[in-house]
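User: Run a structure prediction on this.
Assistant: Running it now.
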Amino acid sequence: MIRYPYQRNPIIEEEKNISYSNRGMDFENAVNISNNYYREEDIAIIYKRPTPIHIVKVDYAHARIKDAYFEKQSTTDYNGIYKGRYIDFECKETKIKTSFSFHNISSHQIQHLEAVLRHNGIAFFLIYFSLLNEVYLLDAKYIVDKYEEKKRQSISYQEIKTYGTLVEQAYLPRLKYLDAVEKVYFNETSKSHN
């Protein structure tokens, strides 16, 4: 592929906006950059799932939507395919250092993830503790089970650290979450647990 001087590379453009002095990040942007990298390197095909909207009014002169509403609730943030397996996950960010609240999860997301698990898909949450600048992959089954207990309102940071997998942060991919997927879902010892 030939790159002319005036062509923009969206991955590099997005990377320039991330400050490495304060390792904090725009979580969704970091996941999108990682997904772009995984697609360009032909490692996986994972996309952000759009929220379905119904457009009511458009300003065609300025190419702008003037009025719209959500048709239905969205399920999870991302889905795609990795190593021949369907992958579906939700990204959540918390500013609380000690726990992740279930108030961040809706019941329709739990129902969707249960269906993915029933059909042998890979389903998980990426949870970003912004004040700690740590991202964990936590299997959806763990969260679904705890959510359905109804006795609890959250999962502690210690639990997530124990039962989740820390996601390495890097330059490209920004979040090496497929390395964590590899450990949890494709490692020989983990296959006996799924």
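Helices lie at 10-16, 27-40, 107-118, 140-148, 157-163, 177-186, 188-191.
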